[in-house]
Design brief:
Keywords: Membrane, Transmembrane, Transmembrane helix
Radius of gyration: 17 Å
Order of helices and strands: HHHH
Transmembrane segments: 16-39, 46-66, 86-103
Distance between the termini: 65 Å
Number of helices: 4
Strand content: under 5%
Shape: elongated
């Protein structure tokens, strides 16, 4: 019986990946908190969209933890992460569009 590629590559339970995810989690959570402060101060739609996009980066880190812990299979990991990538890009582009429209008025 062959093992899945994720197990052969040592993804599940990898101390190195866990350390990287902890650092990513700390960093993205800090940036997310700062984005919420900026949104609270400015109350603009573009700030809200950026905060949501950065919040999705925190979710990506949680998905990574789930994959390393063996809770989320690699197939679903890739599906969720690439969907989140698309949503983040769409939110940032929308924020730029909304911010540009706000600047013109």
């Amino acid at each position: 019986m062959t093992t899945p590629a994720a197990n052969r590559l040592g993804v599940e339970g990898s101390p190195f990946l866990l350390a990287v995810l902890v650092l990513a989690g700390i960093g993205t959570t800090a940036v997310f908190a700062l984005s919420l402060v900026a949104y609270r101060r400015r109350r603009g739609k573009s700030y809200l969209l950026i905060s949501v996009a950065i919040g999705l980066l925190v979710v990506r880190t949680l998905v990574g933890f789930g994959t390393v812990q063996g809770v989320i299979p690699m197939l679903y990991h890739h599906l969720v992460e690439h969907t989140l990538d698309f949503l983040i890009a769409a939110l940032v582009l929308t924020a730029a569009y909304v911010g540009g429209a706000d600047a013109e008025t």
